[in-house]
Amino acid sequence: MKHIFINVMLLAFCCAGVLPAVGQNVNVSVSLSQTKQEVLGFGGGIVYYNNWFAAHKNKEAIYDTVFTGLGLSALRMGNWAQDTSVSVSDVADIYAAAKKRLGSEFFMEMSSWTAPVELKANGKLEGTNGGVTASLKKEYGRFVYDKFGKWWRESLELYHSHGVYPDYISIQNEPDMDAPDYAAMVLNPDESYDVASYGEALKAVASAIDGMEHEPKIVGPEVLGIGWNQAQKYVEKLDKKLLDAYSFHYYHSGKNDHENELRYAHPDDYIDAFKGMAVDFADKPQIMTENSALREREKYDEVYMAWIMANGFNYNGIASYIHWNLLWGNTGGGCVNVEEPWADSTWTTKDGFIVQSEYHALRHYSKFVRPGWLFMKSASSNADVVSVAFRNKAGDSLSVILVNKGKVAHNCALSGFEEFSGNVIQTAADKNVWSKVVGKYEVGDVFSLPAMSITTVALHPAMVIPDVKWEAPLLDDVCLSGETKALNWILSDTFPMKASLYWKAVLKVVGAEASSEWENEDGTFGWYVDNLLDVNNTSRWAAQSSENEWVELKLDTFAAVSGVFIDEETTEYGVIDSFELQCFINDEWVTVHEGVSIGSDFQVDFEPVNTNRVRLFVKTAGSININYFTVKGAGGKITDLYADQENYDWLIGDEVSGRVALEILLADGTSVSESEPFDVKKETSCLNNGKTVQERVCVEDDRMVFYSSCNQMLSLSVCDELGKVVFNGSVSLSQGRNVLDIKLPNGVWVVNFGKRSCKILK
Questions:
Q1: CA atoms of 326 and 62, how far apart (whole Å)
Q2: Confidence at 762, pLDDT banded by 50, 70, 90
Q3: Is 335 exposed, middle or buried (0-12, 13-18, 19+ CB in 10 A)?
Q4: Residues 23, 457, 313, CA angle at the centre, nearest 5°?
Q5: 701-726 in b/e burial notation, b at 16+ Cβ within 10 A?
Q6: Binning pLDDT at 50, 70 and 90, where does residue 478 land?
Q7: What is the phi-psi region of residue 367: left when phi exceeds 0, alpha when psi lies from -120 to 50, beta otherwise?
Q8: 635-645 residues labelled b (16+ CB within 10 A) or e (exposed)
Q9: 531, 537 contact by CB (below 8 A)
Q10: Pairing relation of β-strands 547-568 and 625-633?
Q11: Strands 433-441 and 420-428
Q12: Is the pTM of this model over 0.90?
């Protein structure tokens, strides 16, 4: 095999050192020949709120986001068929959506939280809450292991009948965790008077499912954490031949320097336990089936998650990492948080779900490291940056994930190979950058690793990215929404893979204004409004009072604004508890979103609005303190392109307005080219109550349709591209949709009305 060595300015998992005070260049080498465990997959759990997701009116978009968007390769679900007569259609809906999008490129692991109530000593699904221990019950002096195994088989047969086929099962989630408030069951390493044995229960399940159609593999013991040799204590007492892989959670490490809520931010506390696991469990694949912060979300959670994932592969030798809550309902948790499907009037987001920070941590792995890839050893010299590296078995594709957990940026350069190129993808909360391709990588390039950031360098055999020259008249005149615009460009080469054409709003914040600014009594210090324009500024804006205060962002021109990002500072005096987001439209402030809380890393989407002024209006608060405030632009796909396509007739929709640019993206996210910005304006040929309105013409069901916002008589002519007139006269229009008695066959038609001329494509 050809050996390719990559000298990367990164960090390896095995280095130690003093944290630098300023940014440095760091060296790392990654060798394709030094490989260890094979990757099984990356993913998350969809365990609770299944009925929410299956009933959501935007569930297809949710499924696209978590399955396609992440490139998911591992999915964990719960076995909730304690009653085998109940429907499991919600689980089936989610599983079918995953299969539709991912095919065979993922595995599903199913864990049981408890046995049926009739098999438990305490007679209920929950754990012990005083009284009888929540373990298997006894009959005639023996625990009902055989009945537990029989139930597992029957539950699997139920899922199979609904098209759900787990690849792996875990007979009991956290058998060492007796939870009084949710479904749980205790199984100890050794059998005692009132607690059944995990090993005996495992034996019964393995025997019961042996030989069944679609027989799953078994993982275990899936204990709460890896501290104090907890997983080893279980494995020592069971028949290891019954397990196809070891599984466990990361909720404790055995090191108590940072307990409870501090645990998540200190992944290095796990290193000693990881090293022990790597030795003791080297005979089988290891799957980390659950971990999360178990607290309210905090800034940089995505960094902590990516960091412990890297440590898990580097030290523990895991083959798969499964985050706890891939989807979650209503309470703010999850990689994607989903709002209640039956109460869309209360949604805080346009689509009823929001992508959160840990989604991006997972994506840095799942999208760029595929099942069957191999982990590679890496070594470096700087303790700020954690690295982990993978390659495919052919050795022609590799990905290096870098976690800069330090407070300063570092430079990164790759060297030592010639035939690779690729993309640099980054997430940096302080810069409001999330899973963004920040640049192409070519040999000799140097790129920055921002403080508290995640970077994936995805490398493939060098491919030719064509140069694109955008041609006039695109950049020479103003486009109008509703018209068909001929787009032209010249390619230096064909696209190396599937490419698509997008439009996006171009936003530039040029200033801010506030109703007030807090200053101390002598005016020597204050929290000023300009502070919130810089994401890297450690200062903030604060208002003098706690009600009816506002802060406004001013754009350099009109553009389609579709959301905002806000980072609120929490102080001892309280936070914002009632607010409106407003856009300046037709000479007045219009509310586009209302809410009762903001907090850290707040983001919200709303229907695109063409405006050049956006403001946060705070109605009531304990105190008003904003670290950062910016706007999000609208955008969307225009069309897919074929390999050598150099033109497209774009019917500009009403959603496109203001300053925009065009961009060509490859299927892997690589940006081929972005045009210079240009303006799309709304037609304003008539007035309605003193305010300007737009006119739009299109073809629907072979008939010309004219949308008007007022009653008017309009001169109209229609001809084909050769100038043959098919209609010329006046039409009487009413406000709204008007179907005209003008039938148009397929072709391009020139429409003249008022002072406007445009093309429409039928």
A1: 11
A2: low
A3: buried
A4: 90
A5: eeebebbbbbebebebebeeeeeeee
A6: low
A7: alpha
A8: beebeebeeeb
A9: yes
A10: antiparallel
A11: antiparallel
A12: no
Q: Helix or strand or coil: residue 650?
A: strand
Write phi, then psi, for 280 (nearest 5 degrees).
-70, -25
Instruction: Compute CA 336 distance to the chain's CA centroid, rounded to the nearest angstrom.
Output: 7
- Cα radius of gyration rounded to whole Å, the chain: 30
Question: What digits encode the pLDDT tens for the residues 675-701?
Answer: 988 888 764 433 333 333 456 677 776
CA distance 58 to 338: 10
Residue 662 contacts by C-beta under 8 Å, 6 or more apart in sequence?
A: 470, 474, 487, 501, 502, 503, 638, 674, 675
In this model, does residue 568 exceed pLDDT 60?
yes
The residues near 106 (Cβ < 8 Å, ≥ 6 apart) are 41, 43, 72, 73, 74, 75, 98, 371
Strands 187-188 and 138-139, by their bridges, are unpaired
Which of 390, 465, 362 is CA-nearest to residue 423? 465
Residue 194 and residue 171: Cα distance in Å, rounded? 19
In the structure encoding, which two tokens stand for residue 132, read together? 């009888």
Look at strands 696-700 and 703-708 and give their pairing: antiparallel
The answer to whether 66 and 106 are in contact (CB under 8 A) is no
Domains present along the chain, CATH in parentheses: 5-36+387-461 (2.60.40), 40-366 (3.20.20.80), 465-682 (2.60.120.260), 686-761 (2.60.40.3080)
In the numeric block, the tokens 């031949």 are attached to 241
Answer yes or no: are the C-beta atoms of 311 and 33 closer than 8 Å.
no
Q: Is residue 296 within 8 Å of 278, Cβ to Cβ?
A: no
Distance CA 466, CA 2 (A): 29
Cβ atoms of 503 and 636 closer than 8 Å: yes
Which residues of 642-711 form beta strands (DSSP E)? 647-651, 658-666, 671-674, 678-681, 686-688, 691-693, 696-700, 703-708
DSSP element (H, E) containing 279:
helix 271-280
Position 330 scores a pLDDT of 81
Residue closest to 39 by CA, chosen among 12, 71, 77, 14? 71
Element (H, E) at 579: strand 576-585
Residue-wise pLDDT tens digits, 498-553: 899 999 999 999 999 999 999 998 888 999 999 988 877 678 999 999 999 999 99
From 491, 493, 488, 486, select the one nearest 471 (Cα to Cα). Answer: 488
Beta bridge partners of 557: none
pLDDT at 472: 64
- Per-position DSSP letters for 181-227, written without gaps between them: SSB---EESS--SSSEEHHHHHHHHHHHHTT-TTPPEEEEEEES--G
Beta bridge mates, 413: 446
User: Which one, of 262, 252, 257, lies nearest residue 228 by Cα?
Assistant: 252
**Closest alpha carbon to 569 in 533, 538, 529:** 538
pLDDT, residue 9, reads 36
| Angstrom distance (rounded) from CA 734 to CA 691 | 17
